[in-house]
Amino acid sequence: MAKPLGPWPGMFYGIPILASLDIGTAACAWALRRIALRPGSDQQRHDRSWAITAAWGMLVSNQLLLVVLMMAVVLTRSTCAGTLGTVTASAIYPLGLLALSTLAWSLFTIVVARAARR
Predict the structure, then answer these.
(1) Helix 42-77 to helix 14-37 angle, to the nearest 10 degrees?
(2) What DSSP string describes 31-99?
(3) Residues 58, 37: contact at Cβ < 8 Å?
(4) What angle do CA 55, 98, 49 make, to 5 degrees?
(5) Among residues 49, 53, 48, 61, which one has the least CA distance to residue 104?
(6) Residue 105 contacts residue 54 (beta carbons within 8 Å)
(7) Which residues contact 15 (CB under 8 A, 6 or more apart)?
(8) CB 3.0 to 4.6 Å from 59: which of 24, 41, 42, 98, for a disulfide?
């Protein structure tokens, strides 16, 4: 039998996801701070802040949607999920719809912000 790699064998995908969320959150916080301290009109700062927030929303919702899709694939292909699998599915399918709608809102917000600049 193969020995699991590292102290947390279930974190093979989790560590890169958490690292990208940490780096992305720090970058968005830094960008929001720069926008808040930058001279300019309130409307320009507001529009730029919305775009940065939407970019962070794309980062988070994209990864959440991928995790939910992986869980859904495992649950649908497993024959031994039982009651816990049904409860989990009833929780992750609405979470997947929420992630999909958040991803669409974030993408729309970024596209509108870019179109307004032109």
Answers:
(1) 170
(2) HHHHHHHS-S-HHHHHHHHHHHHHHHHHHHHHHHHHHHHHHHHHHHH-S--HHHHHHHHHHHHHHHHHH
(3) no
(4) 25
(5) 61
(6) yes
(7) 8
(8) 24
Q: Which tokens go with 75?
A: 């649950």
pTM metric for this prediction: 0.75
Tokens of 50: 């919305």
Q: Give 3-48 as a DSSP string.
A: PPSSS-GGGTTHHHHHHHHHHHHHHHHHHHHHHHHS-S-HHHHHHH
Q: 75-114 pLDDT, tens per residue?
A: 888 777 788 888 888 889 999 999 999 999 999 988 887 6
pLDDT in tens, 11-59: 777 788 889 999 999 999 999 999 888 888 888 888 888 889 999 999 9
